[in-house]
Design brief:
Blueprint (H helix, E strand, L loop, with lengths): L12 E12 L6 E12 L3 E5 L6 H8 L7 E6 L2 E2 L5 H11 E4 L11 H9 L8 H7 L15 H13 L5 E5 L7 H18 L2 E6 L10 E6 L2 E6 L13
Parallel strand pairs: 3-8, 3-9, 6-7, 7-8
Antiparallel strand pairs: 1-2, 1-4, 4-5, 9-10
Helix pairs in contact: 3-4, 3-5, 4-5, 5-6
Bound molecules: adenosine-5'-triphosphate.
Organism: Ramlibacter montanisoli
Family: Belongs to the ABC transporter superfamily. Macrolide exporter (TC 3.A.1.122) family.
Protein name: ABC transporter ATP-binding protein
């Protein structure tokens, strides 16, 4: 799965899920985390996934990002089937095409900001320079600092720089503002919106916070393992215009 597909037209699906189901466990203890989910994500789209705790959001994102595999159904990244793919194929998919951002930043404490980002650029096929990634998250002045010297929001911005430095097609964010206060959370969302806008990176963001949905091209609500609704907001708001 090379990156020959980079630069394809906006608007064509980059991800397609068909009848996706995920069951954890079996018998009486089986948990149906996803039930027949159909979803297409267009290239360059900004999708917000909303839903109650336990509704299946992380399971869906993990399958879209090749961290997990479905029990049944199909999932395609462009023309590549991820369902039933071997571990090494999924590893390559994640390494080449997917940037992940989680609630907790997972930075290496003994490495500087720039070194944390360089960990990824050193092993990527077409990385951007470390400083370009830090510029995008407005952290150049902190490039030689250690994670412990940064606020939570700054650490999350390093995690975003690390995720995008390999120029992934997909930026998958699972509660990126979950550990942050209101104002800091907005700053982090602004960074994700900027990357989506300026680099054209397709972004999917999970949140409990319905107000964030105003930033999206499309809002997908997940309930009990199903897609309960899909909305297209009339106008995409900047994080500065959001309030909650
Ligand atoms: N590894 C696992 N083993 C068993 N059950 C699991 C596993 N992972 C998730 N589940 C269950 O699958 C369901 C969906 O979980 P998931 O984490 O996708 O929900 P979520 O919407 O992301 O929740 P939250 O907002 O709390 O993170 C839940 O009932 C959860 O307990």
């Amino acid at each position: 799965m090379s990156d020959e597909s980079r630069g394809k037209e906006a608007g064509t699906p980059v991800l397609r899920a068909k009848s996706l189901a995920k069951v954890y466990g079996s018998g009486d203890s089986a948990v149906h985390a996803l039930r027949a989910v159909d979803l297409e994500v267009a290239r360059g789209e900004f999708v917000v996934l909303l839903g109650a705790s336990g509704s299946g959001k992380s399971t869906l994102l993990n399958i879209l990002g090749g961290l997990d595999t479905p029990t049944s159904g199909e999932i395609f990244f462009e023309d590549h089937a991820l369902h039933g793919a071997a571990d090494d194929v999924l590893t390559e998919y994640r390494r080449e095409h997917v940037g992940f951002v989680f609630q907790f930043y997972n930075l290496i404490p003994s490495l500087t900001v720039a070194e944390n980002v360089a960990l990824v650029t050193d092993i990527s096929a077409h990385p951007m320079p470390v400083d370009e990634a830090l510029e995008l998250v407005a952290l150049m002045p902190r490039r030689n600092h250690f994670p412990s010297q940064l606020s939570g929001g700054e650490q999350q911005r390093v995690a975003i720089a690390r995720a995008i430095a390999k120029r992934p097609q997909l930026l998958l964010c699972d509660e990126p503002t979950g550990a942050l206060d209101y104002a800091t959370g907005k700053l982090v969302l602004e960074v994700i919106a900027r990357i989506n806008r300026e680099l054209g990176t397709t972004a999917l963001v999970i949140t409990h916070n319905a107000a964030i949905a105003g930033m999206a091209d499309r809002v997908v609500r997940v309930a009990d393992g199903r897609i309960a609704s899909v909305e297209v907001p009339e106008r995409r708001l900047s994080p500065a215009e959001l309030s909650w």
